[in-house]
Fold each of these.
Amino acid sequence: MLDINNKKITIIGAKKTGSALINLILHFKGIAKISETASFSQEHLDWFDKHCVQYESGGHSEAFIKDSDIVVISPGVRMDGPAVCWARFAGIPVLGEIEFAAQFCTVPIIAVTGSNGKSTVSTLIYEILHANGKKVALCGNIGYPFSQCLVEQDNLDYIVIEVSSFQLESMLEPNSPFLNKNFKGRRRWFKGFKPKIAVLLNLNQNHLDRHKDMEEYFQAKARLFSNQDNADYAVIDGDGDYFSRLRTKVNAQIIPFNTNEQGENFNHNAVMKVGQILKVDNEICSKVFTEFRGLEHRLEWVRNLDGIDFINDSKATTAEACRWALNQINQPILMICGGRDKNIDFSVLAHLVHEKVKKIFAFGEAKQKIKQTFETFVQVEECDVLENAVRKARSSANKGDCVVLTPMCTSFDMFTNFEERGRVFKEIVNKLE
């Protein structure tokens, strides 16, 4: 386990992950520092003073960053930003929150990533293990920081972590000097992030506003397997275009699963493979699948009003997630979409939209791009805000239709996150008369 007693650990980026990291650092007797571009509330400042947390706000400073033994970045912090560059130039190790927290974890980790479906699969893995009598925690990108989990929960059999490309891109690989115990005469403390089971569900256009291209996105996802060995397992979509490339990179035992089936079946296939590795009876898995009602903001039925169904799919922030949603709906669709573009190609949905969608209501920063992409195939109406889009969709819908929020974009132009966007959508829908 990493010894951080009296070591200065600087966190770049506050918010939920930053707060969890502070608690983890203090729990293991480290000296916590935090640097944030925004301002802190008085409540935060009082808490920092009480717990002797050093802080700076309104931007990152080179002197503050360099006065560190380790720098830990929150998922939203770019690897090419000045704060990270200052640390690296000074020879200070830079870790992401997941990798830093893993230094204190003695429990087998099951890590799940992919462009779509990772929250659902992570939850289902948690559920089958729980149903099998294991004490298990679910954390990571699903909304419960790994750092917080390690402080709050103990005596676990497994930890299931949902991991995003933002959390993976900073992972140290085996050739990193910071994993070499005697690099240049200095003892390095770190172990690489090494899940017992690593799951990659799929890979399609996503986060191209963050990653410069699909190759960089692929390389970030592939880091999930970097530190595994032949005692570990890599559960990978055997039908994916990237499968053959990963076979030459992965040292773990590769367990392929099939994704040619529609609906949730491909998710179930991945979960079943994990269950087989951990010797969970197939009947337990089947029972969990039958009883699982889905996650909030993932094709979530909200209400039926005058014969019109309203569905919240706010989590669908990619074209492929939107494709999946449209394929699950067998009614005429009025589609609400928009937000902040991730620089992905919407036109891959043109044929499906022409086939299944009656009208699109586009809002947010991406509304013009959405209109330009689809107006040849279907009527597109631009709306200023989400509420206008919902009300216009309601007015245009007929009995038997389905109004679905499936944005294809992030929420950050108007909302804090996709959860807030989904909650606002449901509030608007539930007020309709």
Note: The first strand starts at residue 8 and ends at 12.
Amino acid sequence: MQILVVDDGQPALLIYKAMVRNLPGCVAVCFRSSSEALKWCELNEPAMAIVDNEMPPPDGLEFVRRFRRMEKHANTPILMISAEKDSELRHKALELGASDFLSKPVDVIECTARMRNVLQLARYRKQLEDQAGFLAGQVRERTQEIVARERETILRLAKLAEYRDTETGMHVARMAQYSRAIARGAGMPTADQEMILLAAPMHDIGKVAVPDSILLKPGPLEPHEHAIMEQHTVIGHKILHGSSSELLQTAAEIALTHHEKFNGSGYPNGFKAEGIPVFGRICALSDVFDALTSVRPYKPAWPLDRALREISRGAGTDFDPRLVEAFMSELNEIVRLRQEYSDEEAIEAGASPQERAG
């Protein structure tokens, strides 16, 4: 280990160098100029620094101040030595980051013992930091495993809903990707963007309880059928809610609210504006956009420009106008995602769709 020694007096340097030789595995690197020592410290990492305070500028206190500003030396132990016995100087040195303080004349035995103790404390600190880093890594690894299992659960449940519906698995993939893009355009934190990406595929899980005669009907639904279809939001929420998992809690919220409308005319609860959770508002927009631009049993896919006009028309009524703005700001990315996650059987057509819920 290298021990940095800074003192403008040659005799003192020789004494400190002899002390360092008594420390196993240590070698002294000596400087008579604190400026030169600081330059050396920019490229090297000593195990400890021994610094005399009474030197031509920069003095020992200034050395400590500059030394501590270097990130790699934030925890390197410093032994400050001074001819002054003033307690104010001692306090100032410790405040700036000195680990210990000795007054001249230096007792060789005491100084060597102080150096040994400071180094030992530094070793203990490093061991604790290494152990803490190891434990933190273990926690991260376990957390990643838990998140991976949660994500697998979400995707498997989404696959279950997919088998009950004529919509392809690409619908849930597109809808999730669109939702993340909208969240990004709205300036939401990255963690929220990733959360909606993972939770959105579960939005229609409640359709597992909708009869095939309604779910797969190629034409408009009758009023009583529409009422049954609307229950997929409530059923989806019942399936997902009650978990301690933030991911499943978010998925439950989305399942319940992704058919609410900004003006309060949606279902199942008629929530409006800010009363609709933001993830639900985002998924409502991405779900409708994908429905408009995809082939469904009851309609062909709309051309992109027609779908965009419909989205713009719904700002403030069906959709949060701020989220429509976010959607439009991410339009290039959304178009790219639409192509990347396209259904092979999807074809563009301009015919009017038959309106139906779901």
Note: The chain has 14 helices and five strands.
